[in-house]
Structures are given as C-alpha cells and as structure tokens.
C-alpha cells in the first residue's frame, strides 16, 4: 500500500513537471506572435513590419501607402493562385480580406505555394485564415466555406460583395482565382449586376500560360463579352474533370499570375502606375501580351448592357479633355462576329507571325494557346456527327457540345 502511494506521488510530480514544460513552450510560442499595430509607421527599424512598404512613399511611387488599410478585397477561390494572392495582400497590410472557397487542402496541392502538409483535410479558407492571421494580425478576415455557384449561396455572395467591406461598405475589388467556368460566370453576373470592378485570372491546364483581365462593368469587356477566351478556358477546365485526365500545375506559373494580380490590385487601390486591362503570359516563349478589351454591345449579360449604357451616358456628360491622354487606337475586326473591339498593345517586334489562322479573329492574340489544337480535337471527339470544318465554332455551339463531354 505504501509502495503504491509512493509511486502515485512520483507519477503526479512527473505529470506536473510535464505540464509546466508544455505551458512554458506555449507561452514562448504565443510571445512570438506580433501585436497589432494601430498606425502604419515609416520608421526604419528592424521591428517595423511596414518600413519597406512605407518606403514606397519616400521613393515617390505611392502617395499614401497607409491608405491600403481602408481597403477590402474579396478573393474567390483560395487555390494555387488565390492563396498566394491572399498572402501577398496580407503582407502588404490590406484592411480586410474576404475569402470564398469550398475545397479542402490536400497533399496533391503541395506542388504549389502557401499550404502545408499538416493542413491536409482542413478547409482551404480555415487553413488560410490561420496562417494569414499569424503573418499579419492587423488584417481583418472574413471567410466563407461554400460554393458561390450554388443557387442558395449566390445571394449571400452578392450581399457580402455589396456590404462586406470595412464599415459595411462595398468591397473595393473582387479577385477571381477560380478554376472553372461556372464560378467565373457567377462572379461576372454578380459584378455586372452591382457594378463592381473585378479582376479575372487563369492558368492553363498545361501549366505554361496564364492571364489576368480587369473587368470594369460597362467600360471594359466583361467575361461574357469575350467568348473566345472563355471558350478556350472552359474547354481546358472541362477536360480536368474527365476521368484519367489530370491537369498540370506549376508553382512558378501560379506565383507569376498571383503576382500580376496583386501588382495590378495595388496599382489600382493606391493609384500608381497604370492598370493593365489584359496581361497574358506564355512561359514557353516568355511572351507577355497586353491589350485593352472594349465591351461587346451584343453581350448576353443584360446587366453588362445596362452598365455600358450608363458609361456611354457618363462619357457624354463628362467628355474626356484631351485625346492625347489615351493614345491607343481602336481596331475593329470586320469579321469579328462578337463585335469585340481590341487594342493590341504588344510591340510589333513581339508579335507572332505564325498565329493560327483558324483562331477566332480578335482575341486570338491574347497569347499563343497551345491548347487550341487539343481543344479542337476534344470537340471533334465529343461529337459524333460533327463535320470537319476550318471555321471557328460559335460560343453557343461549343457550350452545347461541352455539355456532352
Ligand atoms: Zn459583357
């Protein structure tokens, strides 16, 4: 009996010592978290997380860097591009981030940046928030673990874009980092409806090209205005879902596209440099085409047409002062069945002569899409009765064929 008591006392002491050890480790760990900072300072000291960013003011690049704390950005899709985008904006000290995603972290995501193996099984928004809060506790976070294309979620999504910003204001910018056509269309529809600027981004399924496209409802082409690009993306991503077909992805391409996205976000919010309407990237040739896309007056989205009308009215009431402000020349392609006006800003020297003549005119120059032939083959494979044709197929035709894939 005495022996038993002695052994219990010893065990008790050991456990107490272990608890103390763990508490010490925990205290040390939480002491490593940085405290919130109320005002961004330009002070050049090693302990100031914003000194390098605030230096942009001293360098004459940004007038009021600290304004970034007043802005809210919504990121739809927190995958290979979205997570890196969220991290960059968090490190830059954005005021608030709203994250939407319904997926879970998996080991198959580890070829990309941001997520860690120990986060496997967690929802992407939950894992993101934990990491991002730790990096910068000054940023406000709001996360939504649902699919925005679900009918019962769409209204909530629109509501958060409309009033999820700081002080209940609309968000300042929506960034699309999704990997599917339906989600892009849902974002496009919502943003056209509530007149919200957004930036679309995409990476091809072969991992060697990508793009960003700025959409200002009524002023630039919306996602529904520009079918050729949409169709190409749509087919690419549909193939992902075909059994046995696994899309490739590279951390490099995704990081580059996220960098483009955040660079243009910062330029827009903090008003420096010029925001690129469309910026493509072809990794095979290190080719970076840029262009401006005007809205399509025959767009299928009725809100896009309303926004176009409003903008034309605005222009009529507020005519631009000098033509020299915008030296771009509009080129209307006569045989462009979608009526898209395109301004190619690519220097002559960079233009490719060997463009595929089969590509739909106008948007084909976005970047040399190696998938175009694959796309054509896919479409052929999927339709038994399809005739061989050199003509580009219409959006509706392609969409109906895709349904059968
Ligand atoms: Zn449109």
UniProtKB/TrEMBL annotation:
It holds the Pfam family ThiF. It comes from the Eukaryota. One of its GO terms (molecular function) is UFM1 activating enzyme activity. Residues 50-299 form the THIF-type NAD/FAD binding fold domain. Residues 5-32 form a coiled coil. One of its GO terms (biological process) is protein ufmylation. One of its GO terms (cellular component) is cytoplasm. Signal peptide: none annotated. PANTHER family: UBIQUITIN-ACTIVATING ENZYME E1, UBIQUITIN-LIKE MODIFIER-ACTIVATING ENZYME 5. This is Ubiquitin-like modifier-activating enzyme 5. The lineage of its organism: Eukaryota, Metazoa, Placozoa, Uniplacotomia, Trichoplacea.
């Amino acid at each position: 009996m005495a022996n038993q008591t002695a052994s219990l006392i010893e065990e008790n002491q050991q456990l107490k010592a272990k608890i103390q050890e763990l508490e010490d480790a925990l205290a040390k760990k939480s002491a490593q978290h940085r405290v919130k900072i109320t005002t961004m300072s330009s002070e050049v000291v090693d302990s100031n997380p914003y000194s390098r960013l605030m230096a942009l003011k001293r360098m004459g690049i940004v007038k009021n860097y600290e304004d970034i704390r007043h802005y809210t950005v919504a990121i739809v899709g927190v995958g290979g591009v979205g997570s890196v985008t969220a991290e960059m904006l968090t490190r830059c000290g954005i005021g608030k981030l709203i994250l939407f995603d319904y997926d879970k972290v998996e080991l198959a995501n580890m070829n990309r940046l941001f997520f860690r193996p120990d986060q496997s099984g967690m929802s992407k928004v939950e894992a993101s928030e934990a990491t991002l809060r730790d990096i910068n506790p000054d940023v406000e976070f709001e996360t939504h673990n649902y699919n925005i294309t679900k009918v019962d979620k769409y209204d909530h999504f629109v509501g958060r874009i409309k009033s999820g910003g700081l002080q209940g204001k609309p968000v300042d910018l929506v960034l699309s980092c999704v990997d599917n056509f339906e989600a892009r269309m849902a974002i496009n529809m919502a943003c056209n409806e509530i007149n919200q600027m957004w930036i679309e981004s995409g990476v091809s399924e072969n991992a060697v090209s990508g793009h960003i496209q700025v959409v200002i409802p009524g002023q630039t082409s919306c996602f529904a205005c520009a079918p050729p690009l949409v169709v190409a993306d749509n087919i690419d991503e549909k193939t992902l879902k075909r059994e046995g077909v696994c899309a490739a992805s590279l951390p490099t391409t995704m990081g580059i596209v996220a960098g483009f996205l955040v660079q243009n976000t910062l330029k827009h919010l903090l008003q420096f440099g010029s925001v690129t309407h469309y910026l493509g990237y072809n990794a095979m040739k290190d080719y970076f085409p840029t262009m401006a896309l005007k809205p399509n007056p025959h767009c299928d989205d009725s809100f896009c047409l309303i926004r176009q009308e409003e903008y034309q009215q605005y222009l009529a009431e507020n005519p631009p002062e000098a033509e020299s402000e915008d030296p771009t020349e509009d080129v209307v392609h006569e045989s462009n069945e979608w009526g898209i006006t395109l301004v190619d800003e690519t220097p002559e020297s960079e233009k490719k002569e060997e463009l595929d003549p089969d590509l739909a005119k106008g948007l084909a120059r976005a970047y040399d899409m190696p998938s175009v032939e694959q796309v054509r083959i896919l479409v052929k494979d999927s339709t038994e009765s399809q005739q061989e044709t050199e003509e580009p197929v219409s959006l509706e035709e392609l969409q109906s064929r895709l349904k059968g894939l």
